[in-house]
Amino acid sequence: MSGPGKRAEGRSVTIVVCDDSGSLLGSLGPFEVATPWWQDLEPIRCRFPMLTVLRLLHGTPEDGGAFGGQVTYLAESGPGLTCSPGRLPVNPAALADHPLRMPWARPGGPAADLDWGRTRRISSRPGSCRAPLAAPHLELVVHLVDSRARFTREPGRARLPVAPVRG
Question: Could you tell me whether strands 51-60 and 69-77 are parallel, antiparallel, or unpaired per DSSP bridges?
Answer without folding.
Answer: antiparallel
